[in-house]
Design goal:
Largest sheet: 9 strands, antiparallel
Number of helices: 4
Structural class: alpha+beta
Oligomer: single chain
Radius of gyration: 18 Å
Shape: globular
């Protein structure tokens, strides 16, 4: 009985780890992007374009991994008219791409009278971001894809070990 419970807990742990891996953005592979966004609406060479939640997402892949990604937001019902991405939306997209790591220059709260920050650097992983007012585009990219992958692999191993220990296996 105890062995069956242990196997069941291990199965749950593996499923949870696979779900958390699917949350990757920068550094993810095309299969993970498909799980996140669905089928690309356009694909050309190393680029894939997705649409989800009012955003158009342009992903560039190198060696099977996303090294830069840009987001554009369209007005509802007007596929040719871009809308500004709000500071709150930028903060969420940055947080998702960094897997929760802190960004230099990203305030916890945006105040209308403060000058709006237009570029950010993640504190602990090699990713950067910038927002272009003229094109209403948020660009997030890595300066070192191999290093980013190493960090994610190390974290996955640590997270896996923590999860197994938490489950009492």
């Amino acid at each position: 009985m105890k062995r069956r419970r242990t196997c069941h807990l291990l199965f749950v742990a593996v499923i949870l780890l696979n779900c958390s891996c699917a949350l990757a953005i920068i550094g993810e592979n095309p299969e993970q992007s498909f799980l996140r966004y669905g089928a690309p609406v356009k694909s050309s060479g190393d680029y894939k374009i997705y649409r989800k939640a009012g955003l158009e997402i342009h992903a560039h892949f190198v060696d099977g991994l996303t090294d830069n990604i840009s987001y554009k937001k369209y007005l509802p019902g007007k596929s040719e008219k871009l809308e500004e991405i709000s500071f709150e939306e930028i903060a969420v997209l940055l947080d998702n791409n960094s897997r929760g790591d802190e960004w230099k220059g990203l305030a916890k709260q945006y105040k209308e009278d403060d000058p709006k920050q237009k570029s950010w650097v993640c504190k602990s992983i090699p990713i950067q971001a910038s927002y272009d007012d003229d094109t209403n585009t948020l660009l997030i990219f890595t300066s070192d894809l191999k290093k980013l992958q190493e960090i994610y692999m190390r974290r996955s191993k640590v997270d896996h070990e923590k999860l197994i220990n938490t489950l009492g296996v």
